[in-house]
Amino acid sequence: MAETQNGTPAAGRIGTYVALGDSFTEGMNDPYPGRDDVYRGWADRLAEHLAARHSGLRYANLAVRGKLLRQIVEDQVPKAVELAPDLVTFCGGGNDIIRPGSDPDALAVEFDDAVRRLRATGARVVLFTGFDTRNLRSGHRIRGRAATYNMHLRAIADRRGCDVVDLWSMMSVFKDPRAWHEDRLHLSSEGHRRLALRVAEVVGAQAAGDWREPWPPLEAADWLTMRREDVHWARTYFLPWVGRRVRGRSSGDGREPKRPTPLPL
């Protein structure tokens, strides 16, 4: 029998898959053609890979952009438990980590309890570390907190019997700027495509394509172009983010999950 990444027997038939999280799992910024503000993302792509192997697969995506870990745990985890899924992907805490003063130790306690509740349903649960932010612009300021949180997540996965998609180790591929949207926070469509292939690999649903495929050569940007990109990023993404923080608002306020009910693709 095939084995999972943590050495436990691989799951059999997957009838229901539920994705939990924030904008990362909602799929920003990987839009469906012709559908403004409706995103596909790695989780939708993973569901497509799974459906090719598990006929009749039902898929729900409860993720909502901007959500903190507490909100994911309070709003999404109980719904996932009620759905009794065979497979859950759970990624949360990234929006907490990027906030000044966040405590990765306290986040880990909350995350662990949520995983305990999910595993109690008998579901196979897949967790995600954070990316290594060293090679991302403005990422150095949170790298220490992110690394601490990652170690907690790995310990939780070991303790609870979960699989792990180690995004930190994938930076040999994801350090390329083409893997990222211009907001410097979310993956590009190609980044989402590659990540879906990696998650499919972890859960034993290998699909056509290799997430490790080398990127075509990229001509380095000159200094002036990079500074113009910095100004555009600050005006378009960073300052609005700061404004929302000051007002106590979130990009996900009032927004419902894009796929709240498990349905066939």
Automatic annotation (TrEMBL):
InterPro entries from the UniProt entry: GDSL_Rv0518-like, SGNH_hydro, SGNH_hydro_sf
All copies of domain SGNH hydrolase-type esterase, residue ranges: 19-194
Pfam families for the chain: Lipase_GDSL_2 (PF13472)
CDD domains assigned: SGNH_hydrolase_like_1
Domain of life of the organism encoding this protein: Bacteria
Gene3D superfamilies, alphabetized: SGNH hydrolase (3.40.50.1110)
PANTHER family: GDSL-LIKE LIPASE/ACYLHYDROLASE, PUTATIVE (AFU_ORTHOLOGUE AFUA_2G00820)-RELATED, GDSL-LIKE LIPASE_ACYLHYDROLASE, PUTATIVE (AFU_ORTHOLOGUE AFUA_2G00820)-RELATED
Protein name: Lysophospholipase L1-like esterase
Source organism per UniProt: Actinomadura namibiensis
